Amino acid sequence: MFDRRLVAYFDWGLLGLTFILAFIGVVTIYSAVNAGGATVGQTLYLKQIIWFGAGMTLMAVCFMISYKRFDQYAIVIYIGCVGLLGSVLVFGKLVGGSKRWLSVGSISIQPSEMMKVALIIVLAHYLSRHLRQNGLTLRELTQPMVIVLLPCVLILKQPDLGTAMVLVLIAGSMTLFCGIGRRTLIFISTVWVVFIPIAWSFLKPYQKQRILTFLNPEGDPLGTGYHIIQSKIAIGSGGVTGKGYLEGTQNLLSFLPEQHTDFIFSVLSEEWGFIGAGAVIFLFLLILLWGLGIAHKCRDPFGILMSVGVVALIFWEMFINIGMVMGLMPVVGVPLPLISYGGSSTVTIMIAIGLLINVSMRRFMFE
């Protein structure tokens, strides 16, 4: 039976912040694909609106169903998403040398995006049952490591280094929130120090080049360093107030690469300047603090950990994307949540925020 208290506890503030960022995303995508009278991809902003509508529908489903149901079916959700990742390697559509999408009729979906939410749910399911005052032991971390490693391997096979990195960072954030024993933390840190040089040998040539370009973009200004240099020029040329909507010259003259996806923050910064870019970052900060507030008010371990996982997802994607376009991080193809064009990424973030609203609505059940 529907509890009327759920209506009273509905989180309109979080929903409003989501709508504002999504609106900014659509407006910026329109500028990115239509500035200067471009004809290619002019309908992308309309597609983004459709994807946002689909995301809203799934968000509503997510907050109408008690989040305890997600706890009960966490393993099933995880196995289903891993299965989709495996099917990508067999049936996936090859685009730009990568197999990341499954075609369902005229729609293409990216299972690696859905894996982000599935990982948050399954890790919250496991970690909520193994909380201890002295922190998690190495034995207790073995299963979460396997849970994270399996999808990461499948995603790296596509290849998609950026998404695999986000999964590891989400898992690391949730685990550190739970606490890790001192000896275990020292051991894991040592393993990572040894693993990094070994991992370098397994990277593909273009992935190594991205890291080298990040360290010295001016080393090849007309080649691999071109994207970063043009992006920094766009951000810097925006100044304090920006050049005006649809007036960004880097965007108008098509100097910016992937301006509607990976480098959309550069478009936004050039047109709206420091004030506009700062306002967007401030909105993201509000969402992150809102999510942490929901986790703080919740008294259920699974709800707390799931909220922390969603906050980690939004934070790391925002941090990596903005750092990437500013030349502070290697270019790894991570979208800016709710701003960048992309169906699967938009729907995934909407579902994740729906889970946050779900926890916020039902916090009274544990007061």
Topology:
Elements lengths: L4 H4 L3 H23 L9 H21 L2 H6 L1 H18 L1 E3 L2 E7 L2 E3 L1 H17 L10 H19 L4 H18 L3 H21 L2 H11 L10 H12 L11 H4 L11 H34 L3 H25 L17 H19 L6
Antiparallel strand pairs: 1-2, 2-3
- Beta content: under 5%
* Largest pleated sheet: 3 strands, antiparallel
User: Would you tell me the overall average pLDDT?
Assistant: 86
Describe the global form.
Answer: globular
In helices, the fraction of residues equals 55-70%
* Overall radius of gyration: 21 Å
Q: How many discrete domains? A: 1
Number of helices: 15
The helix/strand series, from N terminus to C terminus, equals HHHHHEEEHHHHHHHHHH
Secondary structure: number of strands:
3
Widest β-sheet, arrangement of strands: 1-2-3
The rounded distance between the terminal residues' Cα atoms is: 20 Å
Spans of at least 5 consecutive residues whose pLDDT stays below 50 are: 36-40
* Class derived from helix and strand content: mainly alpha
